[in-house]
Amino acid sequence: MSSGLGVRARVLRRKPIEQLTHPGSGMHRSLGVGHLTMISIGATLGTGIFVVLGQAVPAAGPAIVLSFVLAGFTALFSALSYAELAGLIPASGSSYSYTYATLGELVAWVCGWCLILEYGVSVAAVAVGWGQYVNELLDLLFHFRIPDALSQPPGAGGVVNIPAVLIVVISMLVLLGGAKGSARTNTILVFIKVGALVIFCAVAFTAFKAGNLKPFFPLGLAGMSAGAATLFFSYIGFDAASTAGEEAKNPQKDLPRAIILSLVVITALYCAVALAAVGAMPWQQFEGSEAALSRVLTDNVSGSIWPILLSVGAVVATTSVVLTVLYGQTRILYSMARDGLMPSLFARLSPNTGVPFANTIIVGLFIGVLAALVPLGALADATSIGTLFAFGLVNVAVIILRRTRPDAPRGFRVPFSPITPLLGVAFCVYMMFSLGAITWVAFLLWMLVGFVIYFGYGIRKANV
């Protein structure tokens, strides 16, 4: 009986906010609000538009525009909660750290395990998309494509996806150089990809046909919801700025600003691009289209330069996503290892750069193998469900901390709490149940593995 009570006490133990922030962690505080905003945009903008759009449009039809709005609205509630908690608990662990302070160690582990799924698998998925756009660009420029055997994973007509491995390794090497240098590289990439999407909108709208939007709901509201659930993958990453809590110069003020500003920019661009795309090309023609935006321009707009420019933008966009989401993954593991829930190797910092060196190499190589061998579709939905679960926990954490730490200094406060975070939870649950049964099975199996690791290792090693 006492043993059972001991286990219960361990899984429910919480970590004080002051211990989670680790002001003397050894990481270098070098990132301002501009860097943080660009990390958030870099981790998000491009994934859904350049990679997943071709899969989502057949599910929703022209209502894909509202699918983006619904997915963005769902993300907004969680973004507000992230903004409050990022300023209150500026730790590298993001929502893992927030739940550790509010819901206890077991829930924190579950959240962290979901974040590993969110960040790690989404890096692999975007790396697969990067390879597709590299092939598209090579075809447009030189009428040459890397053979499927070397550019597709097993199950998609190939043996190994070498381009996907290449971009993961390149990003890993950039991250090893330090947070500030990585942030500068990402900022350049973000400006290029935003410019590419603006050019796409300007060109695609010249071929806009109102008839392509009729009927607007060919697959009903259920189709719009299914499209939103798939497209939620495209909002994964706005929380990446919160993983820079210990490398931000002024995290209490800058993190909330960066999170909210990035989500506004991302949603506006996504909706504009989606409207331009389905207005220029009938939604039925998106079926099976991997490089959907390039096809819109190639088939519906005169001038060979536009698809080339867009493909360059797509390569840059997905490069930026891989770089910034890989950054977030390493910081999540760093925080979990520092708390004892993961091996200490993941928490060792380079004395010169303040980067978790071994962590970055191990994660980079593991994700490279995943990207080389797993198809995109299987990765995207699995990532969405893990993200939605973690987002729901963040909303709950806001409600709890308002009660337990009402006087703690906050750089930003969620308006109309607890209504707003409760709506955030409701939207996350709704979106989770819009995903398919196979995705749920994969998620539950992932959770089962996580519980085995926690009760076999983490519960004994945690240093609370």
Short synopsis of the structure:
The protein has 18 helices and no strands.
Structural commentary:
- The protein has 464 residues and is mostly helical.
- It has a single domain (30-333, 347-436), classed as Amino acid/polyamine transporter I (Up-down Bundle), CATH 1.20.1740.
- 71% of the residues lie in helices and 0% in strands.
- The chain is built from 18 helices and no strands.
- Helix 6 (95-102) runs antiparallel to helix 7 (105-142) and helix 16 (376-404) packs antiparallel against helix 17 (419-432).
The CATH topology label is: Amino acid/polyamine transporter I
- In CATH terms, the superfamily is Amino acid/polyamine transporter I
Query: Could you say how many structural domains there are in total?
Result: 1
Provide a count of the helices.
18
Choose one word for the global shape. globular
The computed structural class is mainly alpha
Query: How many β-strands, per DSSP?
Result: 0
Average pLDDT across residues? 84
